[in-house]
Amino acid sequence: MTRHIIQQADTSEDGRRTAPAASRNTVPLIKALGARLPSTGRVLEVASGTGQHAAAFAAAFPALEWTPSDVDPGQRESIAAWHQSTRLVNLLEPLAVDVATSWPIAQGSVQAVLTVNLFHLIPEVLVRRFFVEARVALSDGGRVIVYGPFRRGTTFVSDGDQAFDASLRARDPAIGYKSVEEVTDVVESAGFTSVARDNMPANNLLLTFATA
Question: Against a cut of 0.90, is the pTM above it?
Answer without folding.
Answer: yes
